[in-house]
Amino acid sequence: MRKTLYIFSSAALKRKDNTLIISIKNQDIQYIPIEAVEEIFVMGNVEINKSLLELLTEKGIVIHFFDYYGSYAGTYYPPESKNSGQVFLAQAAFCLDERKRHELASMFVTGAIKNMIGLINYYQRRHKHINSQDITEYLNFCMSQAPNTCDINSLMGIEGSARNKYYEFFDKIISDANFKIIKRVHRPPNNIMNALISFINSMCYAGTLTQIYHTYLDPRISFLHSPSDRRISLNLDISEIFKPILVDRLIFSLINKRMLTPSDFEPGRDGGIYASHDARKIITEAWEKSLRNTITYPATGQKMGWRRVIRSEALNIQKFIIEGIPYKPFIFDW
Question: What are the structural domains, with CATH classification, of the chain?
């Protein structure tokens, strides 16, 4: 299994034959066989030369860049090794067919909501004094309404309403007032919980994009989120299914285990609140550990880590679009 590299400090990335060289001031130089790397997350300033980019392109290695505050800045997405004009045209035609697009998009929404309900029920069993019935009832209502919406905008409205109600559960389960969400605010995040959600969501979006790279799907053509000239968006669609399982559960774990404190967050120049440099290291280490956990994938009965699960989900979507094989979003067995 190839690994993910995280670079937090200023560094120079170079190539020597088929070896990636990472040079960080006051640290030993690292020599990493390029065949051992799947993706790179860059959260510090890096120097990269043309020779290295050629090697990363040849080996199909994706690099995700984050800015000073840990906000996602962009991705170097090498030319796809699995280019397929047939798949591209089929995916585009599927997106342009309003009925087909809505069908797939509604499955992303219902899958996401089912996993939200699953997470709530999981924690409800462990904290019986918390009453979340009103939240689960509303989520079930949204889930029943999603397939019946008239267009994508209405479907997005249902998804947004469901997620806002779902976030009310965060304040029920988190006892520390410093970590209350109160209201979801994105740009910039206005408190610690919003900072946590935004940062780990970005990690999820980037990691999902890497897995899409290993399929024939074009990440620019999405179904729930509107395709845009300015951004890749299919990873946002697929991530909706996995955020309750991977992002939100990790947030609860980080807080409940007191791995983070309010002092780990700091104000930014834009008025937002962000995880500190050291906090991002803690979060990223926990994120990586969680992705390495294995589950039995329902469709095949195979044991696989979460990256492989996400890739399998993308492949199932590809089969649905190209071959008409029925698609059901991944629902975690809590």
Answer: 3-59 (3.100.10.20), 85-323 (1.20.120.920)
